[in-house]
Design a protein that fits this description.
A nine-stranded mixed beta sheet has the order 1-5-6-7-4-8-9-3-2. By secondary structure, it is α/β, with parallel strands linked by helices. The protein contains four helices and nine strands. It starts with 9 loop residues before the first strand and ends with a helix. The N terminus is likely disordered. Helix 1 crosses helix 2.
Length: about 210
């Protein structure tokens, strides 16, 4: 799959001098399907996970979804991306980076484990992590020597299930499903699962 590495590494995305940010792509709003279970939780109860399923028809719409989600994110937020190779995880993250207004082109961090994209507007940095080869979860995240405070950043982790949940009790899981087999179908089903009180209003925020 990916080439093996002898040790994890992290880098800060360079400022691409002489380049311009990609023009935003105007794409139709994906169709949202709200899950059941909108009843208010009893006082003091831990909110249940809230899920929303969206249909995305193209890479441009996936990137636009990232820009939409960026409007909901702030310092300390943890976003966990799950989907097979080529599902669109990095495309979604590229849209997040555009929406957050960070420096540097967002690409797959496979060969460096993590990249830090500082904000160009005083907002939170984007920390983009590929956890495919991280076995120790949070301990290895701390060993990456990221030049940024994670609680003050938006942390996006690909392949993070079962590895980085302890970074935050409140997190947004993004599950991307695509058609299986040898097909050029670009349709994706994207399920957003908001866990914790931070994401209790996910459906309303996406409306």
């Amino acid at each position: 799959m990916e080439a093996p590495h002898t040790s994890p590494a992290a880098e800060t995305a360079p400022d691409p001098a002489g380049t311009t940010a990609p023009e935003p792509v105007t794409a139709p709003e994906p169709n949202a399907t709200a899950a059941s279970g909108d009843a208010a939780a009893p006082a003091g109860a831990v909110p249940e996970a809230v899920s929303v399923t969206l249909t995305v028809m193209s890479p441009e719409q996936m990137q636009e979804l990232g820009r939409r989600l960026a409007r909901l994110l702030g310092p300390g937020d943890l976003v966990m991306l799950t989907g097979e190779l080529g599902a669109g995880k990095t495309t979604l993250t590229r849209g997040l980076g555009e929406g957050l207004g960070v420096r540097g082109a967002v690409t797959s961090p496979t060969f460096v484990i993590a990249r830090v994209h500082p904000s160009l507007s005083g907002g939170p940095a984007l920390v983009h992590v590929d956890a495919y080869r991280l076995g120790g979860g949070l301990d290895e995240m701390e060993d990456l020597d990221l030049d940024v405070s994670l609680p003050e950043s938006v942390v996006v982790v690909e392949w993070g299930d079962g590895k980085v949940e302890e970074l935050s009790d409140d997190r947004l899981r993004v599950l991307i499903d695509r058609a299986t087999g040898d097909t050029d179908d670009e349709r994706r089903e994207v399920t957003l699962v908001g866990i914790g009180a931070r994401w209790a209003g996910l459906r309303a925020e996406l409306a």
